[in-house]
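Example 245.
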Amino acid sequence: MIKLVKARDYKDMSRKAANIISAQVILKPDSVLGLATGSTPIGTYQTLQHWCEKGDLDFFHVKTVNLDEYVGLDGKHDQSYRYFMNQNLFNHVNIVPANTHVPDGSNLDAEAECERYHEVIESMGGIDLQLLGIGNNGHIGFNEPCEEFPVNTHKVELTRSTIEANSRLFDSIDDVPRYAYTMGIGEIMGAKTILILASGKAKAPIIKELLEGPVTPHVPASILKMHSNVILIADEDARSLLTIE
Ligand code: GLP
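Predicted structure in complex with GLP:
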């Protein structure tokens, strides 16, 4: 079941999300946080930074594990997800860098990298709270629409729609990597709490599909309805096509 939390706008969504993450870290200072990239969580990360600077939040014992990374980009590339996380969160809070994990896009041995990353997740004893955005096609992490839900970390070929959506951040569409490593649906579903965020009109069709449509690997996020503890924070624009209240 998905618990829908209604936010007014992006700022309100970000503050509500930061409050939930903050409560998790206060209740369990050595929490394992599953983190996400994309435009959606940036405001949440800024709010967390702010609270950490004020001394209201302490990341010293927190461990993090990110959802995904582009294959072929190393952590110094400004479009890599490792770079994104350093810039948007890790460099600004008191987290121990060795406690932050992102798949290694520079390792082109997919089998070895996916196995290593799965071990990282296992060795932490699973994820306490997993933060998610949602792609326009319903992807979570980089789990693209497919015929079967993939269980563990794996290499995926990105769909045309994802490449187009993410090309806004690259100099040209040809620079967008074609493959990514992503946590699998099984690993994501293993998190004790899942927090999914959606903001803006562009997300309205997929939020409607997620909440009102069936569970199907063609809409990977739809599996979240089978998890017992999922919170969706959606702003007014993202909720604008819902027929349910
Ligand atoms: C990317 C990421 C996802 C993210 C999605 C939506 O493809 N791999 O984790 O949720 O984009 O991004 P945005 O938040 O920018 O809409």
